[in-house]
Design brief:
- By secondary structure, the chain is an alpha/beta fold.
- Helices cover 47% and strands 19% of the residues.
- It has helices at 19-35, 48-55, 65-74, 92-107, 125-138, 147-156, 194-212, 225-235, 261-270, 281-289, 302-313, 317-342; strands at residues 8-11, 41-45, 58-61, 77-86, 111-119, 141-144, 162-165, 183-187, 215-219, 242-244, 255-258, 273-278, 294-296.
- β4 (77-86), α4 (92-107) and β5 (111-119) form a beta-alpha-beta unit.
- α4 (92-107) runs parallel beside α5 (125-138), α7 crosses α8 (225-235) and α7 (194-212) packs across α11 (302-313).
- The longest helix has 26 residues, at 317-342.
- The radius of gyration is 20 Å and the shape is globular.
- The two termini are 15 Å apart.
């Protein structure tokens, strides 16, 4: 039929030079094109020209509402995700943006899926009510990447959409090939309370080098991470540290200490022993649900970080492989739901 709907519109935190978000988008697009190689895909995000060129999709800027509506009128499915988009820690405006996009997509006739998402934190009661109302009225299926998010949606009063347990979309990606390096990967970021913990991170890097012969390698997952790494390496004195250009290379480390969620995810994909330093509930939730050692950023001490490194270095390889396969299997639910909605 001439006016038959086809294709997908994807909305998320894209075009911001964040390696984790880029991995999520790459995974979603690859999964959709795995079902239909000619699937029309339009991504809503920043720097649309760069998004289009890098991922082989059409793209619309975050404020190009006319282009949104045009794409939504043609598409059969609207995907929100992945990532922790339903939160107001970044800003309430960010939360409103995603909720408006969901409502517009439903109004334009799209099926609506949340794809490998997290939920929360939302600190304002009025915003939790807004989230519940929009999701109950507009979402068809919500695929969640962690159990904590399911509890959060229940607390908000989200009852109508089907809730499907899944995992982060990045688990659909293949781990980088290559030999494991005698190195420990650090994925750090600036955050309130980080500055006062720099000496502890620096001494932990020295501990890994002197105790295990692991060269500290720092990975920048987003703009600003390199500055955090430089501050730690400067405090580490004569320890030979490196800054690695490709964040996915963290999968080849012998051990990983990460504040970044996708630093932990890439480590699990590559079979590297990993430990988390949580600045956000998404990091602590991932570690808790997957039996990874973790401490809160505010509780960081030199002794605590060294203990995390010990556990990461001595992580059981068989248990890590089982964890990876379990998460990869869970992630498939995201794509299966998408295809189900596209096939209606």
């Amino acid at each position: 039929m001439k006016n038959e709907r086809r294709g997908v519109v994807i909305c998320g935190a894209y075009g911001m030079d964040n390696a984790g978000d880029d991995a999520v988008l790459q995974s979603i697009v690859a999964s959709l094109r795995g079902f239909d190689g000619g699937m029309p895909v339009c991504v809503m995000g920043r720097r649309p020209r760069a998004l289009a060129a890098r991922f082989g999709v059409a793209a619309a800027g975050r404020l190009q509402i006319v282009r949104w509506l045009r794409a939504m009128r043609r598409a059969k499915l609207f995907i929100l995700g992945g990532g922790s988009l339903l939160q107001d820690a970044t800003s309430r405006r960010s939360l409103w943006y995603y909720l408006i996009a969901v409502r517009l997509a439903k109004k334009m006739g799209c099926a609506v899926q949340l794809y490998g998402c997290g939920a929360g934190p939302v600190r304002h009661e009025r915003e939790t009510a807004r989230c519940a109302r929009v999701l109950n009225e507009c979402a068809d299926v919500i695929c969640l990447r962690d159990e904590k998010s399911a509890r959060t949606l229940a607390e908000w009063g989200v009852t109508r959409p089907r809730i499907v347990p899944a995992a982060d979309p990045a688990f659909a990606l293949a781990a980088p090939s290559g030999e494991r390096e005698r190195a420990i990967g650090f994925a750090l970021r600036t955050w309130p309370a980080f500055s006062e913990k720099i000496p502890a991170f620096a001494r932990a890097a020295r501990y890994a080098y002197e105790s295990y012969g692991l060269t500290p390698v720092f990975f920048a997952f987003a703009p600003g991470d390199a500055a955090a790494a430089r501050r730690v390496t400067a405090a580490a004195g004569g320890v030979p540290c490196r800054l690695y250009s490709d964040p996915r290379g963290i999968a080849r480390m012998s051990a990983v200490l990460s504040m970044r969620l996708h630093g932990l995810i890439f480590a699990v994909l590559g079979g590297a022993g990993a430990a988390g330093v949580s600045y956000d509930v998404k990091v602590s939730s991932f570690c808790r649900e997957n039996a990874l050692p973790c401490t809160l950023l505010g509780d960081v001490t030199e002794a605590g970080l060294c203990a995390l490194i010990d556990r990461a270095v001595h992580a059981d390889a068989e248990a890590l492989a089982e964890k990876r396969e379990r998460l990869r299997c869970a992630e498939r639910a995201n794509a299966e739901v998408a295809w189900e909605l596209l096939s209606r």
